[in-house]
Amino acid sequence: MKSLQEYFAAKAFGDLVSWKNQVAAAEKFNSTLGEVEEVMLERGWLPARYQRNRNMLTIAQQLQLFRSSVAVIGCGGLGGYVIEQLARLGVGRIVAIDADVFEEHNLNRQLLSSPRLLGHSKALAAKARINEINPAVNLVAVEKYFDRENGPELVAGSRVVVDAVDNIASRKVLDAVCREANIPLVHGAIAGWYGQVSTQYPGDTVMERIYGQADDSPGMEKQLGNPSFTPGAAASFQVAEVCKILVGEGEILRHRKLHMDLLAMETVEVSF
Question: Are 198 and 253 in contact (CB under 8 A)?
């Protein structure tokens, strides 16, 4: 990698390397954009696309993000926003899991949806979107329903799992799989004007406390609906939680749940 290092030493502006030069380096040295990005970060150069991260994240932390894998269960309302924000943040590997296709009622709120994609795979749409906005990120599209049988395999190797499902039954399965796999779970749920976010580490009982007594009926969003803005708000809190876990900085929503009321524009914290 010495020649690649010399290339960037000649092309960098301070410690920044432009996207144009990153692409040129990948072509010149027959490498993937991800391989080039990792070398850049290892040597202390920052891809210019992340320069607005630098006052909150160090280059070493940016490298931590790039070397991390996050599994997102669901590529719909919450999941689409979560996946996009993780990719723009610089998380290097994202496993996007969803067997569904887009339907017309998704168009009001799901970031990855569009009229031309009706009937198309949500997971594959996530891959296409991330390949467009940050091709250095490895988006693994999994067109499967997450269940008790395949769950352990699907989350294997991930540092964090993000809950972006839309029903209680799936959340209970997700809770059990993450417990057994010893992986932190960032929970999010939305309905109408309201949302909630919490983070559960292995050994915690947050999900059980929230959903333990609930039946497996459809989520509240079936009753209250979902506008365009609630998924984005809740997803942003979830991605902030993921970022803090991956870089080991800040206060985590552990043993507590943040409830958002966007109609009253209030947040309430509930401790467990």
Answer: yes
